[in-house]
Specification:
The protein is mainly α and about 300 residues long. It is about 65% helix and about 0% strand. The protein has 11 helices and no strands.
């Protein structure tokens, strides 16, 4: 991120996250979008076929969608700033290379470039709109829209995790409405967490062992343990969110655990490119946490 415009956009995206602590900040996504638009206009059209170009277009779409969302629904600006700032800053620091946009040897047609630009802009706009509740009055719409974006999106745990979150929230709401005041709540939560961690480790080990530079020996054990530990820590941090007012779900600690796991691969990309191999285990662990209470909790006996 040696270029001044990209560095400035990255710093402002961090400011978008910090704006959650203040009462002003609705204009920040628009400022980042304007900076990235300048970069787009000064870059060749075929830059979209590079990782740097994809990063710029995605971040532009996310922040532009965030700015429009802040204008149309000012009450949700903190949610918009939080998600757009987090995802934009992660994409820029992880996927925008130090050398920036370079001259390409391979030649692409204008039609290929425009199609690629359109798909990335669509992914970015849909991502931020679904994360911030746009269309939530239509129950399945945000989840379906985000799922449809996965096949055409840039291969990244950051984007995959973000696009899967609306589906997680949908099924959480469905299960949450069926949970009453059951007995053995703490036992059910503890068991689902232990089972989830075990699944994450075992499945991650299987997938990590297929990576040529790791192999299937002690290296696979060490890497799998490290990945599982890193993601589990984000889940445990998420369990503390009810202490800060995030307690509207029937099982708020389990809700925090699941959402912490979901964003774990996103944050882990800051350290390793292997975060993507942990995602299948993460989402199986989330599934166990969602469905576990229905099986393990015991309904209280009716009083006579």
């Amino acid at each position: 991120m040696a270029e001044a415009i990209i560095t400035t956009a990255f710093l402002i995206s961090l400011g978008m996250i910090l704006s959650l602590l203040f009462t002003n900040g609705r204009l920040l996504p628009g400022i980042v979008a304007l900076l990235l638009l300048i970069k787009i206009l000064t870059s060749p059209l075929d830059s979209i076929h590079q990782e740097a170009g994809v990063s710029i277009y995605l971040c532009f779409a996310i922040t532009c969608g965030g700015a429009l969302r802040n204008h149309s629904n000012p009450e949700s600006w903190k949610k918009v700033n939080g998600w757009s700032g987090l995802i934009t800053s992660l994409i820029l620091i992880v996927h925008y290379p130090k050398e920036g946009i370079v001259e390409m040897v391979q030649v692409y047609s204008i039609q290929q470039s425009i199609l690629q630009i359109a798909s990335n802009l669509l992914v970015g706009v849909v991502l931020i709109l679904t994360l911030t509740g746009y269309g939530s009055e239509k129950e399945w719409a945000p989840s379906l829209a985000s799922i449809l974006m996965i096949p055409i999106t840039f291969e990244s745990p950051i984007l995959y995790s973000a696009l899967l979150l609306p589906t997680l929230w949908l099924f959480e709401g469905k299960i949450d409405s069926k949970l009453g005041v059951g007995d053995r709540r703490s036992i059910a939560m503890g068991l689902t967490i232990l089972i989830g961690i075990s699944i994450m480790f075992l499945l991650t080990k299987v997938l990590v062992s297929t990576v040529p530079r790791i192999g299937d020996g002690y290296g696979a054990d060490a890497v799998s343990l490290w990945l599982t530990l890193g993601i589990s820590v984000t889940g445990l941090i998420g369990m503390m969110l009810p202490q800060f007012g995030f307690d509207w779900m029937a099982r708020p600690e389990s809700w925090g655990w699941r959402n912490g796991l979901a964003i774990g691969p996103m944050l882990l990309t800051l350290q390793t490119d292997l975060a993507i191999v942990a995602m299948p285990g993460v989402w199986l662990a989330i599934l166990v946490s969602i469905t576990g209470p229905l099986v393990l909790e015991k309904k209280p006996a009716k009083r006579v």
